[in-house]
């Protein structure tokens, strides 16, 4: 089939998310100027550069109590920082619970029963049980086409990795059971890995 998005796809469900998959989940924790913490998963998230390390996530849609945006982006505008908590299989239910549209100021950490830990380089809380977490300072926020669409870019200023997932000097994604987002309501857990040598690899 072929379709133009502006004309509609004619299917029971939009296939767009399913075509661009799997995607890492940006489980974004933030803190507003009032000190209240927020935690929410974003399915448009990725790394964008090595030196300095940088990541981005996109916020789509808005809440009626947040003036054209969502809690995460509103907090980030106020404080300029956020933390990306890496999601594992063991945290799948908690991550899903934090996707609820709670009133501004109500804690998703509390709703999901998650223990918090402080960040080291920014004034923000993180998910203590996450296999890894990336502390970030905002570098830019881009307004995207469409209603309430924005991309938030941040430089990673601190990285937490749980020691049990470091094996032979590498982060063991299978042992951590990292979760990825697919389309519709589908997710994937990383279990099976294989390696490919690049054509220009030496040795």
UniProtKB/TrEMBL annotation:
SMART domains in UniProt: Flavin_Reduct (SM00903)
Chain ranges of the Flavin reductase like domain: 18-173
GO MF: FMN binding; oxidoreductase activity, acting on the CH-NH group of donors, NAD or NADP as acceptor
Highest rank taxon of the organism: Bacteria
Protein name: Flavin reductase family protein
Source organism of this protein record: Mangrovicoccus algicola
